[in-house]
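Hey,
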Amino acid sequence: MNELPEIGPSATSLEDKAPSPAPAAAPERPSGQAPAGAPALVSPRRRGKRLLVTLFAVSVALAVVAAAVTAVLLTHRPHRAQAATHPLRVTVFGLQPGQCFNSLPNGIAGAHAVPCAQPHDGEIYGAFLVAGNDWPGSAALGSQARLGCQDRLASYLNPQLATNDLAEFYAYPNQGAWAAGEHSVICEIRGTQGRLTGSVRASSP
């Protein structure tokens, strides 16, 4: 923008069943041969491996379930609608003729409207669009801004006001703002001795 003055884990347990007692009249069997129908004994090492495998399988299953629940929650989470804001909405380009304003700390790049009855930095007395879609260049755009604002000043300004303490300014978009769609020129009146109080307008619209 350009402004120029005119002047938790899960637990799993395995239970080993003890072999059923052999019948009282069991026939003799060769030494080292397991009784018929008796369950095979599992060595402690194999039992430990089975426990680890079971715990690993349960952990994987829990992780899959947790991931699925998280995905569902994220998918169905309500989204807050965000209003699109124009990057120049809170600058002088968002103001209209007749409005008084105070500049934000970053200067002309930010401004907000205030009642003209209270002390303010400036007043908008004119605004117009620059014709064409192609960037005209800073020099050509500055010339159009100056001439356009000068043409609008006399019909807006209260002729009974002393103009010695007033200065005319105009703001026009730089190339970035132009590319963003801002093609307007804003005409301002500011005080040379500090803030203004009251409108400089000749009459109410």
